[in-house]
Amino acid sequence: MKTMTTKKGIRGFQVVEEECIWMKAGIVSLHTCNKVYDCFDCKFDKAMTRAMGVPATVETSLNWAAYFKKKYDGASRPCRHSVTGRIQQAKICTHNYECRNCSFDQMLDDIEISQAQSRPEILNVAGFDFAQDYYYHDGHTWVRMEHGGMARIGFDAFAMKLFGKAKFISDTMDIGTRMEKGVPGWSITQDKKKAKVLSPISGTVLSVNQRAKENFSLLHSDPYQEGWLFIVEPEAPLKSLKKLKYGDDSIRWMEKETARLARMMGPEYANLAATGGEPVNDFYGLNPEIGWDKLVHAFLKT
């Protein structure tokens, strides 16, 4: 597995290329990409575009929707995925090109995003599964930067062991909404208890994992892959990833978090994980006397 290691760049999961597209095109002799091919947020790309005299022709989603509405009129409007060849069969658009409200559009995104995933290398850190090459937020969520600058977000295994029966509630965090780093964006619930979860980065939500909402066991059985929560288009990726834990720093942080949990749980914790055995699947459920609010405040930071 290779990751991008440019000093000030973004470390992208499973991004094995690093040649800038301007270098690939033969226009510059040497320039490496440190933004996981997120050209729209790249100062070098903007400078090269101006230098080459290329007009800015990138249309926003509102512009392409307006174009489709003007070109295709009435009830026979074709689905944009039929027009672009994403799907082979003919399909009629029933949502007036408001794709964020279309379950079919969401389904296609979920399928393609799932197929594009690569399985991370999993370490055992103080008894907990821990995915390498992910960024970690203090509130026990992770961020995985992928080709094109997209960010995938989920819970780490520690949080899912801590709240072993927790369900994922997206609240108002839906497709097209803005996520703000350090601000509560969604919730978990267990045994009629509810807790807010801090967003690890800022950006626009592109996809919500409907399978995880409907089958919350995915959060617990496969938190780093099938149990992901959101796909986000980051706002200022370098700034958003600042202060998140990565690499050796993230491992040391997880070891400290595990030690803190042991202190909170007292001698009884020896029967759960300190002996070297597998951590139990529901710390809160087995130790409700510690208190939901106390655990939430200590580890989710809300």
Describe the largest sheet.
Answer: 6 strands, antiparallel
CATH H-level name of the largest domain... which superfamily?
Answer: RNA polymerase II/Efflux pump adaptor protein, barrel-sandwich hybrid domain
Q: What is the total number of structural domains?
A: 3
CATH class of the largest domain: Mainly Beta
Cα shape? globular
Radius of gyration: 22 Å
Strand order of the largest sheet: 3-4-5-11-10-7
Structural class: alpha+beta
Description:
With 302 residues, this protein is α+β, with helices and mostly antiparallel strands. The chain has 3 domains: 6-52, no CATH class; 65-97, no CATH class; 110-302, RNA polymerase II/Efflux pump adaptor protein, barrel-sandwich hybrid domain (OB fold (Dihydrolipoamide Acetyltransferase, E2P)), CATH 2.40.50.100. The protein contains 12 helices and 11 strands. It has helices at residues 21-24, 43-52, 61-71, 80-83, 103-116, 157-162, 210-214, 217-221, 237-241, 248-265, 283-286, 292-300; strands at residues 122-125, 128-131, 135-136, 141-145, 151-155, 167-169, 178-179, 184-190, 193-198, 203-208, 230-234. It has a 6-stranded antiparallel sheet with strand order 3-4-5-11-10-7. Strands 6-8-9 form a 3-stranded antiparallel sheet. Strand 8 (184-190) and strand 9 (193-198) form a beta hairpin. The radius of gyration is 22 Å and the shape is globular. The two termini are 35 Å apart.
